[in-house]
Amino acid sequence: MPQSGGEAGPEEPASFEDAMERLEQVVRELESGELSLERSIVRFQEGMMLAKWCRDQLDQAEQRIEVVLQQEGGGWESRPFEPRPGEDE
């Protein structure tokens, strides 16, 4: 994830959990009010990129989920997961 301000950008997170942990750290740093304006902007950009990466991971996971439903005849049906209206936001 490239960044401005002369700082090297972080590598792609190793896992969703790592990305969430880093995102929480970025939020704490921003909320502390101790960063300069330039560093705050850099952290904000990093946070936005992490949030997008996490959302993309969740979207991919959602596409892989299959719901298995028992049919009336006793058999099983497998179909892609479809969130109820209003749950995908």
Automatic annotation (TrEMBL):
Signal peptide interval: none
Presence of the UniProt keyword Cytoplasm in the record: yes
Locations listed in the record: Cytoplasm
One cellular-component annotation, GO: exodeoxyribonuclease VII complex
GO molecular-function terms, A-Z: exodeoxyribonuclease VII activity
Annotated GO biological process: DNA catabolic process
Keyword Cytoplasm part of the UniProt annotation: yes
Subunit structure, as described in the record: Heterooligomer composed of large and small subunits.
Role noted for this protein: Bidirectionally degrades single-stranded DNA into large acid-insoluble oligonucleotides, which are then degraded further into small acid-soluble oligonucleotides.
Protein name listed in UniProt: Exodeoxyribonuclease 7 small subunit
Lineage, uppermost ranks: Bacteria, Bacillati, Bacillota, Bacilli, Bacillales
